[in-house]
Amino acid sequence: MNRSVHTMAAVVLMTAAAPTAVAQDAAQEIRIVLPEQPANLEPCGTIITNVGQILSQNVVEPLTVIDPITGQPQPKLATEWTSVDPTTWRIKLREGVKFQDGTELNADAVAFSINRMIDGKITCSNMAKFGDAKLTVSPVDDLTVEIKSDRPEPIMPTLLSVVMIVSPKTPVDQAVNDPVGTGPFTLSTFSPQTVVLDAFDGYWGKKPEITKATYVWRPESSIRAAMVETGEADLTPSIAIQDASNPETDFAYLNSETTAIRIDTAEPPLDDPRVRKALNLAIDWEGLAQLFGDDVKRASQMVVSGINGHDEALEPWPYDPQEAKKLIEEARTAGVAVDTEIKLIGRNGIYPNGAEAMEAMMTMWQDAGLNVKLTMLDVADWLRYLQKPFPSERGPNLLQMMHDNNKGDAAFTVPIFYRSSGSYSTLADPAFDKEIDEALAATGEARTNNFKAIFGKARRQVAGDIPMFHMIGYTRVGTRLEWKPDITTNSEIPLANIAIKD
Amino acid sequence: MITYLGRRASHSILSVIGLLTLVFFLTRLTGDPSALYLPLDSTAEARAAFARLNGLDQPIHWQFLEYLRNLLHLDFGESLRQNRSAMQVALEAFPETLKLAAVAITLSTALAILVGSLAAARPGSMFDRVASLISLAGASAPDFWVAIVGILVFAVGLGLLPTSGTGSWAHWIMPSFVLMLRPFGLLVQVVRGTMLSALASPYIKTARAKGLPRHKIIFGHALRNSLLPVVTVAGDLATSLVNGAVVVESIFGWPGIGKLMIDSIIQRDFAVVQSTILVTATAIFILNIAIDLLYAVLDPRIRY
Amino acid sequence: MTIITTDTKSVTAPGTGRLLLAYLKRDKLALAAAIFLAIVVLAAILGPWLVGDAASRLGLRQRNLAPFSLGSGWIYVLGADTLGRPILARLIVGAQNTAGIAAAAVFASMLIGGTLGLVAGYSERWYSHLILRLADVVMSFPSLLLALIVLYTLGPSITNLVIVLAVTRMPIYLRTARAEVLELRERMFVSAARAMGAKPARIIVRHIAPLVLPTLVTISAIDFATVILSESALSFLGLGIQPPDFTWGAMVANGRGYLTTAWWIAFWPGLAIMLTTLSLNILSNWARTVADPQQRWRLQTLRKAAR
């Protein structure tokens, strides 16, 4: 009785006290403010930013993790992997791992998790990384599984980084909001206001310093920044560039996102390479970069460095308005209808300052003599233009887009964008398709070089897109935390990597 | 009275059904949710499977019949985003909106009656001018602007209030203040206007001639007779707040139904859109009937 | 007293304009409001012609230029926005869309809502009930949902934004008009017209509508302000006017992210909205005072009161 009175009093005091006290009261607890509420906490959806940032490596763990610097897969729940033949991989599992509900991690549990992903009884976003590959999984012994695919899958260990292992007690035919995994934290609350994670005592690895993490969400960047500044929160993974004003707490990081404009190569006058090159040349890239911050990197291809296939030597298009005008004139004399109205299709809220960038680019293209008109669309409407089947009567169009490949390999980029079957691709070149297929089947150095050649061709000859920038994310980290963002921050924030300063 | 209530209720039910039907077909005009729920690089098979799992592959009139059939069993569908009952999601959010709306509308009406009456008591005075100007200015500013500036000043600059969120009483101050601005500004105008006419009417002159104290005349006699228009306007304002204060909820991270509705609309989470509209529309119709009843209480001449 | 008798007669007399001007001069606040609105209207008409080029010219190296900084020309006196475009020029050009959208939406909702209200109030037929249920539905239909549906199915454009705003404001006119008609149709002159065999349509248009109109016009002045604010709230949520078109509301919404670093981007358009809506409210208050015989003396006897 007495104790509950005390607790009551403490609660009242806590809630009535100044907000700053809340976050710092317990030194081992932290509060993280995300931009968006996670819609659900289904472990099969960890590639969705707001789900992954909470669950990934905290509650549930994958078989492998990608090293942020080299892009190579590293052991997590899998300790070793070997390719038995081109379509079969044998995976060794970690010993002595327990799920948060007490179940042991073994080959059956892994097979269960993979089957739950591929069965199609629940909507599994992570499956998309496997494309249309057909997998079969079979336990070999207690701690070994074999994964077979219907075609060679040279990057299977990389792909395994999206396979989140869940307890065999998880329902197979229903998406869940109370995931049970092997991670260092258990989910204790999921309400419309917060998600709370508590440390899991039976964790197999090193105990994290943090014992409790509370997640809240606010859509306005300035408010997230303010919350960390006032101490109401300790960390926010994403703030807008204009809010990143304090060098002590605000860190920039290359976030694996590449912004670009897709040119619809099937629609005249954009089917003419001269017009497409002119579009690339007419942009004042240095001026445009001002919108995204000093640390932003001009892009020449759709993947960032660190991804297998990225060509460091590939030069981006320069700003050359004279050359652009000349190319347009050449096309005009050759009978290309360069005065046709070209729709520039933007998407609301695609990235910070995205609408401003579209307005600026529209003006620059108009200055170059092209009849470009901007339309900003809502996500669902924009998607119709992004993905096949494209709307009929779409007309010549340029589409604002952003691509995020943090999975270590250009295979997650090239086929979707450049192969004629790719869901974003407007190209239809059988020769190019063949080169892409060869690259996808290759391994080792040949794979890297093939992808480099594809990016080179896409940039120099095809010019089917306008790569803009490798984007920079900004985080604000409270002064009592020791943590730096990296290329994986957009998909996960492992609490184990966060230390508390004394 | 009973027949009146019965008629109003049956009209309201008709309107709710009409509303739900309209929303059902209109929302489905806004595109296929599978594009939003699946990763951009999913295969066509995955999309087809998604549509099949969620009954989106059926013809739309069939989906509607299915919806109505489930409605009879009080099954409002599953949220696509949240993996749980859509009605549960809506009912969790609604009380948060209702609490905030109640605080905002009660406080602003009470304050407006006070300020408006005092302004009407001495028309043209300094108080009248300042009160009118300030209340109008408050009502004329975009609310999201006031909210963000408020946070920057009171939470970041002065450190007096929490930036956002829920919990202590301090969390209520800024959201309710922002929500109050517009109702307060409009109501001060209404109170002042009706009070001015009331104070000029013969019965007040009689009361004055009888030598009743000033405050009794204003708050006793004149006010009672000016309440009807105030109730009308306050009722309308309350209605719009019940529909969710999207901007305030979104900025302050208040887990209300307005934010839920806009998120579900943007995400094409149809079942949740339907459920939130069912909840808010029902509340609005109940509120409207309550306002009519309040008329009868305030004005003995009104009988139903 | 003589003044009052002359002007009660003069509501339609030729001297009305001058008299109103005289009233306006008495009320300094109303005068200021009228002048401000006149400037806004002028900007709306002439703005694009005067500074249209400056408003869309990029100046990426003048991004977020602070206000009152000299050296970049007078057009930059209020600073520059996130793309280095002069805010003053954008305010002037934006007045056209802002005022145009609000005016079109208010006019359309007044016309449609008023007409439906007249019909619903006068007739007891089935369509009157249908109109009332329709009003109920529209009232409880979230405007944001409507905005999204229209944006998606019809595409983002100024016309479609006007449709959204007009539909959501319509029930107010409908209900007001109906309430007035319910009272008016029992009056003597209507019964007389009916007895003389006038058709319902004629009675509504000739006898009732002219009496309902003033009330609707008064509401529309305040509603104009509401529409400007709702339009800016839609922009805040990304459902309002879409670039490259812009209004003051959209300017505030875009500038909100810069309140800590470049406050002027959201401040000036916010101030413009506030002053416009404030002026409208002040003027409509003033108009109500003028129209109300019990209150009009306040504007007439001020001269005597001044000692």
UniProtKB/TrEMBL annotation, chain A:
PROSITE patterns: SBP_BACTERIAL_5. CDD domains: PBP2_NikA_DppA_OppA_like_12 (cd08491). It is found in: Periplasm. Residues 72-382 form the Solute-binding protein family domain. Keywords: Signal. Its main location: periplasm. GO terms for biological process: peptide transport. GO terms for molecular function: peptide transmembrane transporter activity. One of its GO terms (cellular component) is outer membrane-bounded periplasmic space. SUPFAM superfamilies: Periplasmic binding protein-like II. The keyword Glycoprotein does not apply. This is Peptide/nickel transport system substrate-binding protein.
Automatic annotation (TrEMBL), chain B:
Residues 94-295 form the ABC transmembrane type-1 domain. Pfam families: BPD_transp_1. One of its GO terms (cellular component) is plasma membrane. PROSITE patterns: ABC_TM1. It comes from the Bacteria. Keywords: Cell membrane, Membrane, Transmembrane, Transmembrane helix, Transport. It is a multi-pass membrane protein. It is found in: Cell membrane. Signal peptide: none annotated. One of its GO terms (molecular function) is dipeptide transmembrane transporter activity. InterPro entries: MetI-like (IPR000515), MetI-like_sf (IPR035906). Belongs to the binding-protein-dependent transport system permease family. This is Peptide/nickel transport system permease protein. It comes from Mesorhizobium tianshanense. The lineage of its organism: Bacteria, Pseudomonadati, Pseudomonadota, Alphaproteobacteria, Hyphomicrobiales.
TrEMBL record, chain C:
PROSITE patterns: ABC_TM1. The keyword Repressor does not apply. The keyword Protein transport applies. GO terms for biological process: peptide transport; protein transport; transmembrane transport. The chain crosses the membrane at residues 29-51, 71-88, 100-123, 143-168, 211-241, 261-283. Its main location: membrane. This is Peptide/nickel transport system permease protein.
